[in-house]
Write a structure and sequence with these properties.
321 residues, alpha+beta, Urate Oxidase, 8 helices, 34% strand
Length: 321
């Protein structure tokens, strides 16, 4: 026979704080959940890791942590029943639910990170493979003074590819020109040779990240389209499986498109602008970063840019990019 439990359950979180200071975010992180994301009537099951936070007023000792879990579970259960297709929408619904369950909170933030896989075909042997990406979704809800709630949603993709150093390509070209001149080739012949023969360079595996933040009621962006933008902006793509014709193609293609981290950032922004300039509101927030894991240096090259679509449009028009 079990022990008799107390019927008095103190609500210590609602007590006055001993040190009355406001805290921006309090909650849970690292919570794993299975989420279903449906695209074109095909369900995709994601193993997602959640972070769920609310703010805490200076007067209150602590948040009711279980309410964060209740909100998350309730929204995920409803999403499964109604086939919610967008992870960022799911995060927004959880954030809004949190503010209902935590009446003293004025802000809620929900983050989701999941491994994301797409089917790809190798460029020459046409072998089907599963390519790995990182999907990130986030939402932030704020309770306004009139009691209404504003929510912004974010979708982000991290992709891995190849970049080839443009500086090293030019150094190799300089070396090749000198050697070919010594062998008696004319300048015209040298230019013809160097136009068709791939030039040596150091290259590196690279990591691109692009995230887009929109008003909650705006139609969502397709994550697969962001993948295409990222992979088109680096020197080349990577594949788990490469037969010899594939390897030859990948290496030559990458060396024909050498790019610095700065080049990749700018190309991502241009491709995004061309695709979405008429579809998204000017207040759309764009965040892009690029990391090149250097092969001949003891450090990595990195660049980032945060900009609104309105500002990007203005820069594009002013600079004729």
């Amino acid at each position: 026979m079990g022990k008799s439990l107390s019927k008095i359950l103190s609500d210590i979180q609602a007590q006055d704080a001993e040190i009355p200071l406001y805290i921006n975010r309090v909650g849970i992180r690292g919570l794993k959940k299975s989420v279903t994301r449906e695209r074109e009537d095909v369900p995709t099951h994601l193993s997602a890791r959640f972070e769920v936070y609310v703010d805490l007023p200076a007067s209150q000792k602590g948040i009711h942590m279980s309410r964060n879990l209740e909100a998350l579970n309730a929204v995920i259960d409803r999403a499964v029943e109604t086939d919610t297709s967008d992870t960022e929408i799911m995060c927004g619904l959880i954030a809004q639910d949190l503010l209902q369950r935590q009446p003293t909170a004025t802000e809620a933030c929900v983050k989701l990170v999941a491994d994301y896989f797409l089917k790809k075909t190798t460029p020459q042997s046409n072998k089907e493979i599963s390519a790995h990406y990182m999907l990130k979704a986030r939402a932030r809800s704020v309770r306004k003074s009139d009691g209404s709630i504003d929510t912004w949603k974010t979708i982000g993709i991290k992709a891995t590819g190849i970049t080839v150093c443009p500086c090293s390509v030019e150094l190799t070209r300089d070396y090749g020109e000198e050697k070919l001149h010594e062998l008696g080739y004319t300048s015209e012949q040298i230019n013809e040779i160097l136009e068709v023969v791939p030039l040596a360079s150091h290259n590196q595996r690279s990591e691109s990240y692009l995230s887009i933040t929109l008003p909650f009621d705006h139609p969502s962006i397709e994550a697969n389209d962001l993948v295409k933008i990222l992979e088109s902006s680096m020197s080349g793509e990577i594949y788990d499986l490469l037969k010899r014709p594939d390897e030859q193609y990948v290496v030559i293609k990458a060396h024909e498109s050498p790019r610095f981290v700065e080049d990749v950032i700018r190309r991502i922004l241009v491709l995004f602008y061309k695709k979405y300039k008429t579809e998204l509101p000017p207040e759309t927030q764009i965040w892009v970063s690029q990391t090149n894991f250097e092969s001949i240096h003891s450090y990595d090259a990195y660049a980032e840019q945060g900009i609104t679509l309105g500002r990007l449009s203005k820069e594009m028009e002013e600079n004729g990019a």
